[in-house]
Design a protein that fits this description.
The chain is α/β, with parallel strands linked by helices and 314 residues long. The protein has 2 domains: 181 residues, 3-Layer(bba) Sandwich (FAD/NAD(P)-binding domain), CATH 3.50.50; 119 residues, 3-Layer(bba) Sandwich (FAD/NAD(P)-binding domain). Helix content is 23%, strand content 28%. The radius of gyration is 21 Å and the shape is elongated. The chain starts with a strand and ends with a helix. The model has no long low-confidence stretch (mean pLDDT 95). The structure holds NADP nicotinamide-adenine-dinucleotide phosphate. NADP nicotinamide-adenine-dinucleotide phosphate binds next to helix 4.
């Protein structure tokens, strides 16, 4: 059993440091609750891995994803948020104060705000796992530079796939977007930009069945789902953007999840456990925007403030 890091009981602990977690931290800090943020492995969350955000109000020229994450962090820190750069390994939500264990510490907290976000889905095809970091990637911002003047494939037809495909054209000689239908899911603006980019081409109605390569990705086996024809495509890298799965495995024993695995919350971010709130993509399978996550984080913090005030008042 790990040692208890602090004997004290926190008023509020926030699990995760994306837009939801950092906005919750800002609001809780300004109410002088001295929130403790357990950052998780991806400090800043998915937004920090995004090249540019153009739909967060207040930045008419767009803002770098990591820059926005830094600004969120600074803002929360300014009012007294504390950060623990670690990962929750286990939680006990059976009674209050709740317990959160990292590898070496245990924390106690009267309330919790879960903002653990979501992780990229995998294709789960032969070759994918073996070649991660050797041509298979889930983050263009992290790995795009390694593919200078190379030919890459992007799998997916949503906003992420097109945004990342456009970003990759800064480095690569060509991007082939492979989509399983003949109609993109992405918004109209991104579709327009991608379709007029001369470095981007599309393979429609097709799925990647296997990724081949010994030292690095060499070829993809692609099947056309309409005529069942299988073909081989020589390629240097494959970037996979086929949606996300919520990071809820730690909580499923205690919190109600919906049929897709997202934490069920009411319109005020309350979960089924009193004192536990959830915000951002871990509890939102529909909107999943920086602004909606930030808004949910603020709501969760306000609900924590109300709950703690009521409890003191009683
Ligand atoms: P998404 O919208 O769920 O799109 C996933 C894409 O992957 C879809 O085109 C889907 O095909 C395809 N796909 C899913 N499973 C697949 C599989 N096994 N094999 C092949 N293709 C598969 O995910 P996302 O693009 O990551 O976006 C997530 C959320 O973030 C969305 O709400 C999006 O609007 C938002 N987002 C917004 C922006 C922006 O506003 N600039 C940028 C990025 C993300 P089908 O279309 O056939 O289902």
């Amino acid at each position: 059993m790990p040692e208890r890091a602090r004997q004290k009981i926190e008023s509020v602990m926030i699990l995760g440091s994306g837009p939801a977690g950092l906005s919750a931290a800002l609001y809780a800090a300004r109410a002088e609750l001295h929130p403790l943020v357990l950052t998780g492995t991806e400090v800043g969350g998915q937004v920090a891995l995004t090249d540019k955000i153009e739909n967060y109000p207040g930045f008419p020229d767009g803002v770098g994803g990591s820059e926005l994450a830094n600004l969120f962090t600074k803002n929360a820190e300014k009012f007294g948020t504390r950060f623990e750069y670690d990962l929750a390994m286990e939680v006990d939500l059976s009674s209050r104060p709740f317990k959160v264990r990292t590898y070496s510490k245990e924390f106690l907290s009267k309330t919790l705000i879960v903002t653990t976000g979501a992780s990229p889905n995998k294709l789960n095809i032969p070759g994918e796992d073996n070649l991660i970091g050797r041509g298979v990637s889930y983050c263009a911002t992290c790995d795009g530079w390694f593919f200078k003047d190379k030919k890459v494939v992007v799998v997916g037809g949503g906003d992420s796939a097109l945004e990342e495909a456009i970003f990759l054209t800064r480095f690569v000689s060509s991007v082939t977007v492979i989509h399983r239908r003949d109609e993109l899911r992405a918004g109209a603006l991104l579709q327009k930009r991608a379709k007029k980019n001369s470095k981007i081409n599309f393979i429609w109605d097709s799925v990647v069945e296997e990724i081949h390569g010994s030292e690095a990705v060499g070829t993809l086996l692609i099947k056309n789902v309409k005529n069942e024809k299988v073909s081989e495509l020589p390629i240097d890298g494959v970037f996979i953007f086929i949606g996300h799965k919520p990071n809820t495995s730690l909580f499923k024993q205690y919190l109600d999840l919906d049929d897709k695995g997202y934490i069920k919350v009411d319109s005020h971010t309350h979960t089924n456990v009193k004192g536990v709130f959830a915000a951002g993509e871990v509890a939102d399978s529909i909107y999943r925007q920086v602004i909606t996550s930030a808004g949910m984080g603020a709501v969760a913090a306000i609900e924590v403030i109300r709950l703690l005030d009521n409890e003191v008042g009683n």
